[in-house]
Amino acid sequence: MNIKKIxxxxxxxFVFLFLQIAFWNITKEKKPEWTVSPEVPSARMVNxxxxxxxxxxxxILCFYLQNAGDSGGRFSSLTKYDYSALEEWFYxxxxxxxxxxxxxxxxxxxxxxxxxxxxxxxxxxxxxxxVDKNPAKKWRWLAHAAYLAKHRIKDEKLALEIxxxxxxxxxxxxxxxxxQMPAFIxxxxxxxxxxxxxxxxxxxxxxxxxxxxxxxxQNYIKHHLGDLKQKEKAK
Length: 235
Prior knowledge:
The protein is an all-alpha fold. It has two domains: 42-168, no CATH class; 175-235, no CATH class. It is 69% helix and 0% strand. It is built from 13 helices and no strands. Helix 4 (83-96) runs parallel beside helix 6 (120-132) and helix 6 runs antiparallel to helix 8 (140-152).
């Protein structure tokens, strides 16, 4: 009786071993299909996932989005991501926590370095929207958006538009360079006169301007924008 039981056990063991080997042989070349850009959950799904704790969900989704496309032992190029979907993810994360700089940093410093420069427009658009929520504390992301527009997208008109937006913010104690940025971009675009006007207005309307800043702007006008008095004499 014991011999029969042992024999039956061995037979079953070999059957299952054979099935396991056959299954492996059939599926060894098949790989799981991973989604590079995960689908953005609906508002209802977000409420279900949060379970009343938006901060917890915010942190989970930030980690999830940061590692999206890099799982299952594989790594995905940023060129393979759907940036329109990523932009929607950024807005979703801001709805969960608009005070945090984590999403903006992830968008600007990670997803913003994609070789597909046109995809960077999604990042720039998001950063501008992010600043609108609290310009007094978020204005620095406008400066980064202008940088991305000028040096990554190579769109100087867009960069100038953003720089003017930054310079026009009604936020006290912003560094002086935020008001000078449009002049720098205009100078690169070849509009020296407009750049000179901005610098001159800043020098004439800014109270208690440090002497170092005055000398910097005077030197910038002279060596980068051309001396206006010398041009008038030449005429």
